[in-house]
Structures are given as C-alpha cells and as structure tokens.
Design a protein that fits this description.
Layout lengths: L1 H35 L4 E16 L5 E15 L11 H5 L3 H4 L8 H30 L1 E3 L6 E2 L4 H5 L6 E5 L2 E2 L3 H9 L6 E7 L2 E7 L2 E6 L5 E6 L2 E2 L2 H4 L2 E3 L3 H28 L10 H14 L1 H19 L7 H14 L5 H30 L2
Antiparallel strand pairs: 1-2, 3-12, 4-11, 5-6, 5-7, 7-8, 9-10
Helix pairs in contact: 1-4, 1-9, 1-10, 4-8, 4-10, 4-11, 8-10, 9-10
C-alpha cells in the first residue's frame, strides 16, 4: 500500500495537476471567445466521462470536473456532442431566438475565432510560463566554442578542432552552444555544413550528425543527432543571461517557437526514417515525466507544463476532424464554397478523425508500456 501511495503522489498527482491546468486554459480560450461572440455555452468540463462534481451558473452553463482526466471540452448551444459536431437537424427546428445563440448558426468568423482560441490560449500560456521562468531564473548559456572533439565523431571526421568557434550551421547564425545542440539534435543522418572560425579564418565543414541513443538523468532513452563536440566552463564561459520582463516575453515566444519547429522536424524525421516512432509518447510517459520533473522542483514542473502546452496547442491545430484543426479545415472549405460542408460528409469525416485519434492514442500508449517494461 505504501508503494501505491508513493506512486500516486510522485506520478499521478503532478500529472493530473499539470494536465488539468493545460486543459482548463485551452477550454477557457474556447469559452471566452464563444461567450464574447454571443454563443450560448451548455457545459464546460475538465475531463471526460461521468461527472465527479460541478455546478450550474446563472447563465445555465454546467461547470464540471469529470472522471477521465485526459482532456476536456466546451459544449456550445447547438452542438450535438462534446466534439462540437453541429446538430443540424435540431438547428433547422430552432426558433430565431435560439438560433441567435447557437454555435452552428453563428457567423463563420465567430466560429473560426472560437475554435482557434483554444490552441492560441495554450501558446499564450506557454509564452507566459517561459517569460516568468526567464524573468526569475534567467537562462543558462554558453559560447559555442569547442573544448573537446570526440574520437570517430562526425565533427572529428569533418576536421573540427578544440578552440574552434561555431558561428553558423547551414548559414543559420548561432550564438550559444544550445543553438548548436538544438539545430543538430533534430537532424540525425542529415548532411549539414558547420561554419567555424579558427585563427581569424572561417571554414565551412560538411558533416552528417550521427543518430545516437542517449540516456537522461532519469534513465529515459532519447534519440538525437550528435556531431561529437563538447564545451566546458572555461572554454564555453558558462553564465546566466538575465532578461527584463519585456525581453523575457520575447524569449518565451522564441522558446515556444523552437518547440513548434522541433515538433515538425521530428515528424519529418519519422516520415523519412531518420528517427524511430518509439519516441512518440502518450499519457503514461507524460505522467512519468511529470513525476520526474516534480523531483527536481517547481520550476521544472512549470517548464514541462509550458512544453506540453505548446504540444497540446499544436496537436489540436492538426487538420483532423474532431480536433480544432479539423473544424478550421471545414470552415476554410465553407469560406471557399460559400456554404457549409454537407452533413453526411461531416459525419464520415468525424468518424475517420475519431478513428485516427484513437489509433494514435493506442500507439502512443503501447510505446509507453514498451518503454516501461524495457
């Protein structure tokens, strides 16, 4: 029993708290813009399934916490279900008063803004969290100067030497060692050109990062592109970079953008076979990561929350029916055609989208279980 409570406190509680915060912010984005647009709200739920507790406000909205903490939803007036599929049959029978507050009857731009507000809220939350962390703790940086070159590495084969200053990769300027690590890490088995400065002369050194499996401090295995260079305190001039509040917001936005581009780079590597799909994790891995970050401290949990918030926002923008991006795709078609997509086409698309999402969840969960059992 002691082991069970330890597991509950270390892994499950941080996971539920972090995910519930992200879901609440996402759904609040939908809710606020929907209300601002004059759309009625039937229910606001953190979690799916049976209601655990809740209340109904003066406007008739049911606010609730549900049993399965793996998402949430806002059900608008006129929606058929929690996936925001329009109830077209009911809409046709509504009075003018009810149609005025029904989501499917709202102007196209209001529906699009309401749907887009959820992912946007996640991006804004991530920027805010990063901004707070950068304002309070600053950012650890090091100059991109090579202290050591690993034997038989891509850098060694290309002729990189200790003391070289890395100034660009593929023409992209780098200012910190982290810039190098970030760029190289998502490009395993991809030819790149590293520009170094040596004794006042710049040299372009072609090389190919090697796909390498590394183990982090918690024993998790991660695949990255590695060129085999190392810096240290003396050579890299390790220091803490400080930011004003405004600068911290800009840095938070940049950090969020790095997560977005890194996600697309990973997906591209999956399609080209440069990375394995076993890096894709689901709720079990998120729970594991939440517990691991909690052992480091509150700031680590906040950083994880920011990363997950960007990921949730990006995932929801994918053009898959039942996700926000799928609804926006329908609205784009409606804008071009001048009329909504037909009810039958929407029904088929929603079923396909649901099957895709469930398949992805099963695959990610299988990866999680495989990772746990080695």
């Amino acid at each position: 029993m002691t082991g069970f409570f330890a597991f509950l406190i270390v892994y499950i509680v941080p996971f539920i708290l972090v995910l519930s915060l992200l879901v609440f912010v996402h759904e609040m984005g939908h809710y606020l813009v929907g209300r601002w647009s004059g759309i009625g709200v039937v229910a606001f739920s953190v979690g799916f399934g049976p209601e655990l507790l809740g209340f109904t406000d003066s406007r008739g909205t049911r606010w609730k916490i549900s049993a399965i903490p793996l998402g949430g939803y806002v059900k608008f007036f006129g929606d058929e279900d929690a996936s925001s599929k329009p109830d077209l049959q009911r809409l046709a029978m509504m009075s003018e008063v009810d149609r005025a507050r029904a989501f499917p009857a709202a102007k196209l731009w209001k529906r699009a803004a309401t749907v887009a507000a959820g992912p946007i809220a996640n991006f804004l939350l991530a920027i805010a969290i990063f901004a707070v962390l950068f304002s309070v703790y600053g950012k650890q940086v090091a100059d991109p100067v090579v202290a050591e070159v690993k034997e038989k590495s891509a850098a060694a084969e290309a002729g990189v030497q200790p003391g070289d200053l890395l100034v660009a990769i593929d023409g992209t300027h780098v200012t910190t060692f982290d810039d190098v690590r970030r760029y190289v890490g998502v490009r395993p088995e991809t030819p790149i050109v590293v520009t170094v400065e040596r004794a006042g002369t710049r040299l372009d050194l072609p090389m190919t990062p090697k796909r390498t499996e590394i183990t982090d401090q918690f024993g998790n295995k991660i695949e990255l592109g590695i060129i085999g260079i190392v810096t240290n305190q003396e050579t890299g001039n390790f220091r803490t970079q400080t930011f004003t509040p405004l600068e911290a917001v800009g840095e938070g936005a940049l950090q969020s953008w790095h997560i977005v581009t890194g996600t697309f780079d990973y997906l591209g590597n999956l399609l080209t076979g440069r990375m394995n799909a076993d890096q894709l994790g689901g709720p079990i891995r998120v729970a594991q990561a939440s517990g691991q970050m909690a052992t480091i401290g509150f700031s680590a949990v906040l950083q994880l929350a920011a990363v997950l918030s960007v990921s949730i926002g990006l995932l929801n923008l994918m053009p898959v029916p039942v996700l926000d991006g799928g609804h926006l795709m329908f609205y784009a078609v409606e804008a071009v055609r001048g009329k909504p997509v037909g009810a039958m086409a929407q029904e088929i698309a929603f079923r396909i989208g649901l099957a895709m999402v469930l398949t992805l969840m099963v695959f990610a969960t299988w990866n999680d279980i495989s990772n746990l059992i080695g």
